[in-house]
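Need a sequence for this fold. Nothing fancy.
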């Protein structure tokens, strides 16, 4: 079976799900209608292949070829199907589609794996709706408590628990799931590269070396709502000003500390053009190879806006600014032996390039939980991601599937 046709034809039916016709971007929030439609697609692909489909207590989907057990854990591959808002078509779906296509290739090669092979779709990897990324894998591995997770709210104030219930799930069961985790012997995630490392290397497929430490912090700037026209400047307590200072300070500190910092989401309340806002909430995403520099940047910003450091004080700091850490992922160095094995197998004559990434992934959460994990990257010609412009060439997608099938065959000998 021609692997590329499988990838191409499998990406096709997904292309319309959650797509914004005006922008070509994707709106695939966790537990939204688009997410439920994607879950049905996943179930259909599993059924077409006679795979044993299971949804675990945290909404992660597992499609098994062979029955895993703690005594005989399987080799699992896959990724996620949810997206950031106005995201691209490849971040997540390429890994899930390639997993099914690689399994087809193994069967086409009449490979009889020595262990079960699983395809996984993790729930809510982007955290676009409830704010915490890798929600499904964090709950699965216990690094995020169900109490905290289920109470997280979306922009409309709805909780994760309500969203799961509305989707017919039982959120009260969410939480660490050692039974499911025990089925996973090795996890390999294929993902479109979010960067231009493979373009520079001139290679279609690469292997992840490490995932940078990264986190998300929420800044709440409190002020006093008042009339835009009748309130003198001296009488204003305008939260927009410390917010603006924070954004400019973030860029300066990032430059100075050699990290990256982004404020991509701001919520102004109540949001009247003719009124001084009462509250400005802003989310900082900061990442970098050196954890102390990332942490240092956040401390710089808290100081710049007169806030207590995250988690230091019970409520808003002296300047009416409150900083809360919403998620933190320490550095993940992938297992060197497994990483090098993948580079050899995936690279053919010359080992595939091994490169770090500033993007977070479920493979990082599993690796941090002690599950032998690794990642394959597929070349992204522009490096652009988290945007409708995200792209991967067809031939590179095919090379990714062949590399993944070779890696799975090697791991399942
Ligand atoms: O944010 C990330 O790095 C990932 O795409 N969730
Ligand atoms: Mn992403
Ligand atoms: Mn992703
Ligand atoms: Mn008025």
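Here you go.
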């Amino acid at each position: 079976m021609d692997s590329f046709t499988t990838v191409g034809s499998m990406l096709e039916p997904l292309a319309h799900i959650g797509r914004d016709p005006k922008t070509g971007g994707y709106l695939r929030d966790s537990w939204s209608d688009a997410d439920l439609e994607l879950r049905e697609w996943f179930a259909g692909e599993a059924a077409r292949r006679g795979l044993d489909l299971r949804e675990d207590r945290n909404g992660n989907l597992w499609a098994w070829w062979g029955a895993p057990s703690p005594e005989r854990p399987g080799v699992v591959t896959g990724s996620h199907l949810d997206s950031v808002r106005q995201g691209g078509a490849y971040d997540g779906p390429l890994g899930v589609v390639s997993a099914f296509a690689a399994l087809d290739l193994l069967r086409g090669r009449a490979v009889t794996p020595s262990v079960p092979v699983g395809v996984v779709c993790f729930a809510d990897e982007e955290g676009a709706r409830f704010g915490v990324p890798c929600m499904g894998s964090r709950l699965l591995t216990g690094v995020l408590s169900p109490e905290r997770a289920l109470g997280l709210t979306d922009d409309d104030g709805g909780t994760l628990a309500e969203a799961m219930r509305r989707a017919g799930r039982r959120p009260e069961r969410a939480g660490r799931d050692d039974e499911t985790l025990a089925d996973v012997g090795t996890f390999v995630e294929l993902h479109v590269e979010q960067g231009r490392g493979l373009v520079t290397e001139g290679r279609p497929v690469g292997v992840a070396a490490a995932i940078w430490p990264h986190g998300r912090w929420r800044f709440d700037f409190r002020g006093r709502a008042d009339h835009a026209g009748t309130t003198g400047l001296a009488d204003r307590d305008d939260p927009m000003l410390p917010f603006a200072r924070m954004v400019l300070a973030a860029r300066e500190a990032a430059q100075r500390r050699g990290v990256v910092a982004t404020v991509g989401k701001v919520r102004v309340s109540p949001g009247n053009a003719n009124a001084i806002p009462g509250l400005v909430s802003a989310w900082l995403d900061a990442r970098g190879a050196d954890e102390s520099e990332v942490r240092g940047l956040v401390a710089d910003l808290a100081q710049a806006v007169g806030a207590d450091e995250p988690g230091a004080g019970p409520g808003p700091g002296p300047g009416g600014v409150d900083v809360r850490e919403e998620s933190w992922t320490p550095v993940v160095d992938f297992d060197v032996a497994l990483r090098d094995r993948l580079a050899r197998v995936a690279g053919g004559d010359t080992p595939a390039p091994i490169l770090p990434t500033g993007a977070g992934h479920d493979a990082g959460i599993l690796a941090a939980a002690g599950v032998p994990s690794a990642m394959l990257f597929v070349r992204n010609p522009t490096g652009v991601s988290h945007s409708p412009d995200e792209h991967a060439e067809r031939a590179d997608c095919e090379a990714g599937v062949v590399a993944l099938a070779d890696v799975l065959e090697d791991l399942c000998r």
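For context: The domain at 3-212+331-411 is CATH 3.40.630.10 (Aminopeptidase).
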